[in-house]
């Protein structure tokens, strides 16, 4: 049972399972065909091409666009192979072209994200070629043919899916829509409705855990096509879920069964229409019953329905791409050229990675070890944008490698001479792909176990080789962490980030108090003030040599303080309205939930998780009171400034 729950936490719709099966089949097919036609040399590069293509981070665009970039990977890798011997023979001078190339790969993300993803994975193919060359024999023709054959087969397998949305989005959000449809069908049945509410709430929480998991900051969700939209749909359907709960009371209190039945049927019809989004069909939202309620005496019921129908419209517009999430304006070459300086994080990270890999190559040459290229691979596998994340990923990689070695040796000792051994090898190949969506330590364990098992078959001295590989991962981690720590560490970065997240969480809770009757506003306000003071101290104690970072942190603090003041103003104003018989609480609740969600999105951006963020709330705020609209837009404006600074 615990294993089932663990798997469902990271793979609730089995999308990772499907992807891993497809990747494993592709790798086996490429290996078998290339071995038959081009021998072992062809098989090595065919399987490497297949694995690389399935490890490429999610590409943006249509299937045709993705295929073009996958073919670009094949072309770049193929162009490098004829120069492998020259690169290997120039010795320590290899650090010069290595540094230049790695730096170019890094800054390519300023031009085109897809290009950066393809060039990054092509690095691995180049390093594999150097490893083969280090063995003393590199057969160019068969290696080249194997790479091309494997690349084309894997490209076809990688892009083999139907429709705009990936399996995760289709399966998961159809499941959630089915949940809220069933809730709508039972608005008159309290007992059944309550049971369905619990079930839907559990499903929403399970999906949220995928995006909230720390591993998502160092992993790519390869099956979640348009991951920003996946989050968008999750939060909008959760809004519908809460709206239905708030509407339930009217289906008990109002004594107009015909009107209520018409409303219920229209809600069910509209929810069913929303499912067409995931089949690339047109969505038609019906409002006849809603308009009837607006003309009736049930004004509060009409206001509650207005919130629900507004969510219908937002989801419909999102499906038709009228709402653009995580949109980045196109840049001219002149703008890109201006960005290439050391104030730009992308440029600094590119320099850091290039320096780390070049140092790895230099270490290999100076110490005369023949496995130096593996150190470079170790650098690539653990290197992240900060010394903190490099440390987290590095430790998980090392722990996973040690677990994998031990597990592999146990399997070899007991099962090496049996037929079951081959089945286990194939199973661990599958796990290597499948566990990519799980925390790093699980993937690293599976990868190293596979490595140990495969090399026990093809090399007699595999144990010495395995010890080298673990050592290489350790050296690679030390190089990557050392460069990040010594040259690019932002003093107090971890502390600042941690304190910023505490403030946003406190502000989110304070915001929620505006709509929850049992919320203790004074208690949460005290917590906000405490966290704000802690964050300010962390900023002042930080490294002021990084003036731009210091200035940005102070600006973030200023905006957080202003948001706190605005929330207090909003609370006082709402208190006055309630004394005068105010009946706009439902629309106000919807607007406050938008503000609350934006705090969550800031947190996701800080943690480098997928997120969506509107630049403006002009057509999203549905309250009618001008002062409420004014205050909410001021809060949203400060949130925008913070989101742009983190």
UniProtKB/TrEMBL annotation:
Keywords noted in UniProt: Cell membrane, Membrane, Transmembrane, Transmembrane helix
Compartments, as annotated in UniProt: Cell membrane
Superkingdom of source: Bacteria
Any one GO cellular component localisation term in the record: plasma membrane
Cited InterPro entries: Memb_transporter_dom
Positions of transmembrane segments: 20-46, 67-84, 90-111, 118-138, 144-161, 353-381, 401-434, 466-488
Keyword Acyltransferase: no
Membrane-related topology note: Multi-pass membrane protein
Domain Integral membrane bound transporter stretches: 359-481
Family under the similarity heading: Belongs to the YccS/YhfK family.
This protein's name: FUSC family protein
Species per Swiss-Prot/TrEMBL record: Campylobacter hyointestinalis subsp. hyointestinalis
